[in-house]
Design a protein that fits this description.
single chain; mainly alpha; 78% helix
Length: 259
């Protein structure tokens, strides 16, 4: 079995595990105590992130090569997941807003489909495949993801709760996700010894990402008093900006190689 085969096997295992966890979590009964919880749940952002992760894992499984078929498959599953919640007696009615949030997450993940497979970063992909072909690396990255996401969320939540009277848990979760994702990517680069390979990508993406953060902040501010969740809007802006920055870095790298 090659490194690519082992890596793909691990992606599929991760997808099945996350699919199971997510399905159980979305079908747990909701009672009166949960509804009166002191901590406000950033429900829409949770749906966006959770189904976005599901779509990304499915995209990396390699079961379906056509991106439109892959997108349709996961999008249909999100509909089934939300519909079965309303059909079961678990005090979880069908929510159009939850479904839209989940579909947005799927769209964000699928936006990257094909972007990572470019001749300009073939060496990076080969190194990542070797790293992800080993089970203990998945355990390390998973541990880093959980700790680096939860710890900032907890610390930031307590800091915010001491300074202001209202909760901004969407902001807290978004910060945790950004820190967690950055930590996993950092570890992936270190384990795969990819520092020299990503220098040009980091430099070429820096300005685009800086502008994206400013735009995302403005979009979040202007959507605060609308029906659309502002933190979902901020996340979408960050994903689109990162994709644009990545495409720019790829284009500049191809131009450099062709000179």
């Amino acid at each position: 079995m090659t490194s690519r085969d082992r890596s793909q096997h691990n992606w599929r295992l991760a997808f099945l595990v996350w699919l199971t966890v997510l399905t159980i979590a979305t079908h747990l009964p909701q009672g009166g105590i949960a509804n009166q919880s002191y901590i406000e749940s950033p429900d829409k952002l949770l749906h966006t992130i959770s189904f976005g992760m599901l779509a990304f894992l499915f995209m990396c499984c390699g079961w379906i090569k056509n991106k439109w078929v892959a997108w349709s498959t996961i999008a249909l599953w999100a509909v089934i997941d939300e519909t079965t919640q309303g059909a079961m007696r678990i005090n979880r009615p069908f929510s159009t807003q939850d479904l839209i949030a989940g579909e947005i997450g799927i769209g964000c993940a699928m936006l990257w489909m094909g972007s990572l497979h470019s001749h300009a970063n073939a060496k990076i992909l080969a190194s990542i495949e070797v790293v992800l072909s080993r089970g203990h690396h998945w355990l390390v990255l998973g541990f880093v993801a959980v700790v680096s996401t939860i710890v900032p969320c907890v610390v930031l939540w307590f800091m915010v709760s001491l300074m202001i009277a209202w909760q901004i848990n969407g902001f807290v979760m978004l910060v945790g996700i950004v820190v967690g994702t950055s930590s996993v990517l950092f570890c992936l680069v270190k384990i795969g010894s990819l520092e020299s390979e990503i220098v040009h990508f980091r430099k070429n993406m820096a300005m685009m990402l800086s502008g994206t953060i400013l735009i995302a902040a403005m979009v979040g501010f202007f959507t605060t008093h609308t029906y659309f969740d502002p933190w979902v809007a901020v996340l979408v802006c960050l994903v689109i900006g990162a994709k644009a920055g990545w495409n720019r870095a790829i284009r500049l790298q191809i131009e450099k190689q062709s000179v």
